Amino acid sequence: MNFIKQGLLLASLIAAVPSIACTPDGTEGFVPENDLKISVDSKRVGGITKDQFNAVIDKFEPLYRPIISANGGNLVIERNWEDGTVNAYAQQLGTTWKVSMFGGLARHETITEDGFALVVCHEIGHHIGGAPRKYSPWSSPWASNEGQADYFATLKCLRRGWEKDNNEEIVRSMTVPETLQKACSDQHLWNQDYYTCIRGGMAGLSVAKLFQSLRNSTVEPKFDTPDARVVLRTDDNHPATQCRLDTYFQGALCEVHFEEDVTASSEVPGTCHGSLGHSIGTRPLCWFKPAVAR
Which residue from 8, 26, 207, 228 has the highest number of Cβ atoms inside 10 Å of its Cβ? Predict the structure, then answer.
C-alpha cells in the first residue's frame, strides 16, 4: 500500500473514532480507570437510590438540553442504573452529545445526591464548560479539560439546577465544616448564594472522598488544607484529590452569576479570574496555569 493510501486509511479510521471524555481515547472517565463494580443488589451501605439517581438527571437534563441545542448538539443522558461501573463519561458523536451515568458510581458509599449531581454537571461541563479544552490527537478539541469541567460544575451547573430549591432547609440538614461555612459567609453573605455555596462545597467533598477511596489514600481531603502545588502549564488530566476539592470549593465561592456564560475561546469570560482582579473563586494553580496575565 503506498503512502497516500495509507494516509487516507488512517484519516478515515481517525474520523471513525468516537470522541470521548474524560480522556480522548476513552480509557478514563470522571475518575481514572478502575475495576470496581457495585452491582444493583450490592449489600454496601451508602450511595443513593434509583429514585434519587433518576430525580437528579430529571432536574438537570431539561435545563441543559436547550442550552446544548443552542450550541449545536443534542443532549442524551444515558441512565445505566443496572451497570455497576464506578465512573461516568461524556461523548460526542456528530450532533449527539452524550453523558453516560452509571448505577455503580451512584451506589458508592461516599456519594450523596448532591455529589451525584456534581458528576452529572462535570460531564455536561465537558461539552459546554469552556476553556481550557483538552488536547486530542484524534480530533479537534471539543471537551473542556478535567479541571475546567470540575470548575464549571460548581461555578455554573449546580447553581442553575438548585436555583429554585429550598437551599436553606437542605443545608440545615448537613454537618458543614467550619472552614466552608466561614468562606461562603465571607464571600456571599447570608443569602441564596451562601446556601448554594455550602451545597456546592459539600457536593465536592462527597466526590473528593470517592477519589480518596478509589486511590486507597489515607489522606483525607479538607477545605482547610489546599494543595500548594503550582503547575508550570495547565494540566488537562485528573488533578490530585485535594486539588479537585479545591476546584469545587473555588467554583462555589466565585461571585460571578451562573448566567454569565463561559466561552471555548477564552478562559476569562463568566469566571473569577486574576486578570479581572479576583483573588477568590479562581481556578486553583495546582492544575491551572493562566494564559491571560493576572
Answer: 207
**Spatial CA neighbour of 274 closest among 266, 265, 283:** 283
> What sign has the CA pseudo-torsion 263, 281, 207, 175?
negative
Contact predicate 82/34, CB 8 Å: no
290: preceding bond cis by omega (within 30 degrees): no
Amino acid at 64: Y
- Which ranges of 87-191 would DSSP assign to H, the alpha helix? 103-106, 113-128, 146-152, 158-161, 167-172, 178-188
Q: Which three cell numbers stand for residue 167?
A: 437551599
The pTM (predicted TM-score) of the whole model is 0.90
**Residue spans per domain, the chain:** 16-276
For residues 121 and 222, the answer to whether their CB atoms sit within 8 Å is no
Instruction: Give per-10-residue mean pLDDT for the chain (294 aa).
Output: 39 39 56 90 86 98 98 97 96 96 97 98 98 78 94 98 97 97 93 95 98 96 98 96 98 97 97 97 98 73
209 sits in which H/E element = helix 192-214
How far is it, in rounded angstroms, from Cα 27 to Cα 1? 31
Residue 261, CA distances (Å) to 132, 174, 226, 248 in order: 14, 30, 27, 18
Strand order in the sheet with 88-93: 19-21, 88-93, 96-102, 74-80
Give the pLDDT confidence score for residue 124 in this predicted structure. Answer: 98
